[in-house]
Write a structure and sequence with these properties.
Blueprint lengths: L5 H5 L2 E5 L6 H14 L3 E4 L4 H7 L6 E6 L8 H13 L4 E5 L2 H5 L3 H18 L2 E5 L7 H14 L3 E3 L11 H9 L6 E5 L5 H9 L4 E4 L2 H13 L8 H5 L11
Parallel strand pairs: 1-2, 1-8, 2-3, 3-4, 4-5, 5-6, 6-7, 7-8
Helix pairs in contact: 4-6, 6-7
């Protein structure tokens, strides 16, 4: 990537409003913010989908919600039901948490069936599906296994984190996931992307979506640099230098 614009950066953002204490007026304000900045989507709690969908009805901004969030431990049937309801409520994208405990236990068959069942709903309804790994809990081999499972199933994106574990995205994790998924599977960095340099770093490592609650800060920083002729992509080497053996967060 030789150049990047503030508009392009905004168009990669899934603006997240997922905290349990977010009120209806917070969801409404966040929806209007997304419409103003033209983000890729707004990611809301399942019960908030109708609220966001009503506000964004005439906007290109997609409505996204989460399934099995944040632990991934709900049954497959429950995740399928959540996906069906989300679609009925006006959702266009879903971010599901894989079953972390089953992956850690090496039960790849269960994990694949769980993801495939929800992916089938996404394909039937036209929703885009992203699968959250919660990389904080996984070693490199487990992250690669999750990439292989998701690639076989044919999901649209793999995603690092919920933002509710002990750590979020790292540049090393983004690079690892990009290296172990085919080109048609996108990478979403989430958890700790709180400023423009962090966003540029994960983009350099292969992310094409960014989950963040710091949308306004990131886009305004990008617009300021762009106006001053100072907005440019980060090179991969500089992005990877922000990490330290896969342990240092990007922020």
């Amino acid at each position: 990537m030789d150049r990047i614009t503030a508009h392009q950066i905004a168009g990669m953002i899934d603006h997240a409003i997922l905290t349990p204490n977010s009120r209806l007026d917070d969801v409404e304000a966040a929806s209007r913010l997304c419409a103003r900045y033209q983000t890729a989507s707004i990611c809301v709690r399942p019960s908030d989908v109708p609220v966001a969908a009503a506000i964004l009805r005439d906007s290109p901004v997609k409505v996204c919600t989460v399934l099995g969030f944040p632990h991934g431990t709900t049954s497959t049937a429950a995740k399928v039901a959540e996906a069906e309801q989300a679609w009925k409520d006006g959702c266009q994208e879903i971010d599901m948490v894989l079953n972390i405990g089953r992956l850690l236990s090496g039960d790849h068959e269960y994990v694949e069936h769980d993801i495939a069942a929800v992916t089938a709903v996404a394909r039937r309804t036209g929703m885009l599906i992203k699968v959250i790994f919660e990389t904080f809990y996984l070693d490199s081999a487990q992250k690669i296994a999750a990439c292989s499972i998701c690639s076989r199933v044919g999901v649209d994106f793999v995603k690092t984190s919920t933002g509710f574990a002990g750590g979020g995205a790292t540049v090393d994790d983004i690079h690892l996931m990009r290296s172990n998924c085919p080109a048609h599977v996108g990478i979403k960095a989430s958890g700790g992307v709180r400023d423009l340099d962090a966003a540029l770093a994960v983009i350099a490592c292969g992310a094409t979506r960014i989950g963040t609650s710091s949308t306004e800060k990131i886009v305004q920083e990008a617009r300021t640099r762009e106006a001053n002729g100072e907005l440019r992509p980060m090179v991969l080497e500089d992005a990877l230098a922000r990490g330290e053996q896969g342990k240092t967060k990007i922020y």
